[in-house]
Amino acid sequence: MLRRPTSPSASNSSSSSSTVAAMDAKSASRDAALPSGFQDDTDAATAEATYKLPPPEAPETIRTRSWVIASFWIVAIFLGLPLWHATTTIYRAPLPMQEMQNWSEGKLCKTEFPLLVEVEAPSLPEAESLLKTVQHALDDANDFAAHKPHHLRLRLAAKEAKAAPEDPKAEKGENVACLLRLLPDSRNGFNHTVHSSSRTVDIHYPPPSSSSQSSISAGLAKFVAEILEVLFWQEQELIEHLLLPQTSNPGSLNALSSPTADEARDKKTPPARPRALTADINRRMSRVVKYSPSYHLTFSLFTATSLPASWDIESAISQYLTPLLSALSPISNFTISTQVQYYASISSSVTPTFDEQLNAWTLKKEDLSSFINSAEWPLASISNDPNLNFILYIPHPSMTPLVIPSASRSDSFLLPQWGGVTILNLDHNPASHLSHATLKPAMETFATHLLALLGAPPHPASLPIRLDSLTRQRSAEVLVSASSTLGSLQRLVNALPSISIPATVSTSVRDSIRHLSLACEELRKGSFVKALEMGRVAQEEAEKAFFERTMVAQVYFPDEHKLAVYLPLLGPVSVPLVLGIFREVKRVLAERKASRAAS
Amino acid sequence: MDRRCILVIAAGVLLRLVLFTAFPSLPTTLAQRVEVSTPVTSYKRLQEGVYLYTHGVSPYDGGVFHQAPLLLSLFSILPSSAIVTNILYVLADLFSAISLVKIASSGVATATPQHISPRKGNSWPPWATAAAFLFNPFSIATCIARPTIVFTNCIVLHAIAAAVQGRRAPAFVSLAMASYLSLYPILLFPSLLLLTYDCSRANPKPSIQAFSAVTTVLFSTVLIIYFKLSHLLTGSWEFVASTYGVHLLLPDLTPNVGLWWYFFIEMFDSFRAFFLCLFQLHLLIYVPGICLRLRKQPLFALITLVGISSIFKSYPAVGDTGLYLSLLALYNHIFPTMRYTFFLTAAILYATFLGPAFYYLWVYAGSGNANFFYAITLVWSIVNALIVADALYAVLRDEHETERPELIGKDVVQI
Q: Which family does this protein fall into (chain B) (predicted)?
């Protein structure tokens, strides 16, 4: 191992080496720190003439060099490669892909809405057989159109229900969709009245004469079936429309539309479906705000002058609106704020014209959309929930009365997905305070607007039935939305193998699927409020999974970009490593050749 | 230690004391310079940690303090007066200088059992080496700014001084302490092992395998004791993640003179883990190669590794470069063989003056951006890398000339 400087192995006669010490007699006296490039040409020429071949490298030096190269490679291979693998492998949590697809295609849950209709017929002897006939007629209609999600089931009211027909909800739970009361009425023949505050529908029929007992009951059966059709057709059409996979309903999350969904739609859409009806539903749906578990309502009084200076909004809300809001509470919650704005002018682009015939100022229909002066009216919401605005506008006395000319001289209009506006025309010297009674018609209009904005069907007159209908409609909506989000996620994950799937996405998806099936079960049982609750959770979880931040970040990082990430650093680093091993291999090969030649 | 050494050391200590007393605001100003204090060494953060520690709050909770628990207990015992602290830092530098004198006096730089430099006669006397450390502006600035790297440097120098005297136990107890304080000195373990082995005067000499096995056991036992002690002091293991985790994972992207901060600000999140591993591995990859190639001069292998880690570690500061340059002064006999001394001196001055200027432009004046400062840290790192490479070249040439003395004074050309 020991090598004394006094005993150099100086033999200048061998062959191969990559570095050569060029001896230059003239530069020997020079500072050795001078870089080689500083030599002038004549020196170089003489240097070339006096080349001496260097001595062979000592085997010890060669061994050291091999070891050094090997040590670099050993670290790179045995530490670098495993670390590279461990840190760049994309974690993809397992997802129930097949299940997600099935949900998005609607295979797992046949959305049904079993509606229980109770019939009360105190004075009809063979009510049972009547019900059977009606049920038969309804079933026939359902069979004819197999895609209809509703299932009406008739039941004769129990004895207790008869005792307290006003309050069926308390006894039967939420399962009773409506209560039919068959009452004989000799004066008017067949007709029906819908109670506006309960689920009861009174059906009047002419009392049977003893001779034509069967014909009466046949006529009655037909009439009852018709009534039921009328009661539920609007909702039925709407839900059917919602359940069709991804039609043009707004807010659809179907990011990657797949051909299968289109096919399914083509297949399912009944060709005979009236175009006008679809258009009507679309029009109605386009008004409806996106579903949210809570909304913020803003009531604003905008007056063109300084009067009226105040309004009795609190008591008006508590009297006219709170009952409705509490009835809506199973579907959504509401928070309310109010404001008053004086000297509020309508947008400058809107100029009412005076109509001699009506003796009133009129707003043109096309002006209504730009009526809101969004530049000056402080209507920005501070709440995180979707905001619905209700505006009570009091025009300038010189422009009173201000009306919207339509079939009926109306003074209110609805702005789709935004809110409602009511124009209140006061007499020429307005009071400084708007009383509670003055506000009543406006509040009623706002209530109607609110129901329309939330998507409650305008028909029938009974509020409980309409709210039930809204619940069903919303649960269908969240189910469809959650399933389609799951489907989109599934397609996304399939389409982009390079995105990572964190464990949170997997749990969210599983949660969503669990709640979807729970919701489906609840639907089948007929408890729609619970179904809505479950569906809401399912939708939230599905969206949480779909919009996971870390996953989205990876979407825009294709494989080709990795080259740009690795190469700038690893390229230069690997050049000496690769060259080192290349030279070493070359040397070994040359040595072998030399030894073969020698032998 | 001769009279000149004592004079030089006294002058160095005096200079520091004068700077501390004559410019009372200087320590605070320097302590805020990103070039001198890093998140893992900063004196300000140490004070914060000590405050929390003495008030019974875990200092590692807030994500501000990233230094070892034993430092905490040291500073919580000390009376909290600036003078005592300043004297402590001056003492640390004093011990560093004494260690350097010991290393220089041992003559290991010029003559190891396997190699004797033909330029042996050119080397400076020990006091000059001490002076190179004590009057190095980087060392002075580091001492005044009081980052805890001063202690790490002092302990590393002490470990080397013990190693060149062949005293294994003190060398490795010190190296374990240095690794415990700031992690990266652990990379010096193999070279220090070789140095201790070469200098040990045990008779008969044990085989290198047996020697390294015993040393490894000793080193890890001491390290475990330090960890256990820290655990006892803080009552939990959270200091591990908060000190070594920060060195390894770089959560704090405060600018410094190193190459990491800018790179990891720009890094895609998904590749962060990979490039962290790559950067750490890059430090590690030099260790076996350099130890193998410089087997005849383990002290220089150690110095080169100090230089490499001062460039490529996660939170470097000028204090690391100061340590490297002071150690390099031990090899002054090879300076004439270095090729780019003028260029390197000029470039290091350039980076030293432009660095603070560009930082000012970026952070205070707002007329520059992060790229200004990053560009100058790149220059700084390149200069340091060139110094390391040039010194390595010079030592290898020196080694080559012991084998081929007829080549002394000739130019080397690669063909």
A: Belongs to the PIGU family.
User: What number is the average pLDDT over the span B324-349?
Assistant: 93
Out of A470-484, B42-56, B170-184, B375-389, which region has the weakest mean confidence (pLDDT)? Answer: A470-484
Judge if A306 and A235 occupy the same domain: no
CATH number at A430 reads: 3.40.390
Q: Are B16 and B85 in contact (CB under 8 A)?
A: no
Claim to verify: residue A121 and residue A239 sit in the same structural domain: yes
Whole-angstrom distance, CA of residue A221 vs CA of residue A472:
27
Structure token digits, residue A450: 């609110």
Q: What are phi and psi of A109, to 5 degrees?
A: -130, 110
| A residues 15-44 lying closer than 8 A (beta carbon) to B | 18-24, 27-36, 39
> Are residues A299 and A417 both part of a single domain?
yes
Same domain, A232 and A354: no
Split at pLDDT 50, 70, 90, the class of A189 is low
Residue B347 — pLDDT band, cuts 50, 70, 90? very high
Q: Same domain for A295 and A392?
A: yes
Can you tell me the distance from the alpha carbon of B259 to that of B264, in angstroms, rounded to the nearest whole number? 9
CATH of the domain at A212: 3.40.190
- Residue found by looking up tokens 């220059």 in the block: B379
Contacts of B187 in chain A (CB under 8 A): none
Give per-residue pLDDT as tens, A496-506: 777 778 888 88
Q: Is residue A376 part of a domain?
A: yes
**B389 contacts chain A (CB < 8 A):** no
- Considering only alpha carbons, which residue of chain A is nearest residue B342? A33
Domain that holds residue A325: 289-454
What is the residue whose two structure tokens read 């397992």? A94
Q: How far B399 CA lies from chain A's nearest CA (Å)?
A: 9
Please say if the pLDDT value at position A265 is more than 70.
no
The partner residue sitting opposite B404, judged by closest CB among A8, A30, A71, is A8
Residue numbers of A between 408 and 437 with CB closer than 8 Å to B: none
**Hey, is the C-beta of A74 within 8 angstroms of any chain B C-beta?**
yes
Shared domain for A418 and A323, answered yes or no, is yes
Beta bridge partners of A238: none
CB A109 within 8 Å of CB A232: no
Q: Residue holding tokens 């609190």? A: A314
pLDDT greater at residue B83 or residue A291? B83
Cβ <8 Å between A55 and B404? yes
Q: Does A569 touch chain B (CB under 8 A)?
A: yes
pLDDT digits (tens, 9 = 90+) for A452-483: 888 877 766 677 788 888 888 888 888 888 88
Query: Which residues in chain A have their CB less than 8 angstroms from residue B271's CB?
Result: 88, 565
The answer on A408 and A318 residing in a single domain is: yes
Torsion, CA A41, CA A44, CA A50, CA A53, rounded to 10: -160
Do A315 and A423 lie in a common domain? Answer: yes
Contacts with B337 from chain A: Cβ below 8 Å: 32-33
**Domain spans, chain B:** 3-244+261-337
Is A283 part of a structural domain of the chain? Answer: no
Q: Is residue A481 part of a domain?
A: no
For residue A1, the chain B residues in CB contact (below 8 A) are 114
Over the stretch B20-71, which tens digit does the pLDDT of each residue have? Answer: 999 999 999 999 899 999 999 999 999 999 999 999 888 898 888 999 999 9
Give chain B's largest Cα–Cα span: 69
pLDDT score for B11 = 95
Q: Is A73 on the interface with B (CB under 8 A)?
A: no
| Structure-block tokens of residue A5 | 């400087």
pLDDT at A539: 87
Q: Kindly provide the ipTM of the predicted complex, given to two decimals.
A: 0.86
Closest-CA distance of chain B to residue A30, Å? 7
Both structure tokens of B372:
């200004």
Contact of B336 with chain A, judged by CB distance below 8 Å, is answered with yes
In this structure, is residue A479 part of a structural domain?
no
Q: Is B341 exposed, middle or buried (0-12, 13-18, 19+ CB in 10 A)?
A: middle
Closest approach of chain A CAs to the CA of B362, in angstroms? 26
Question: In total, how many domains does chain A have?
Answer: 2
* Residue B4 confidence (pLDDT) above 60: yes
The 3-state secondary structure of A252-277, one letter per residue: CCCCCCCHHHHHHHHHHCCCCCCHHH
Query: Above 80 in pLDDT, residue A267?
Result: no
Determine whether the interchain pair A21/B412 forms a contact, defined as Cβ–Cβ distance below 8 Å. Answer: yes
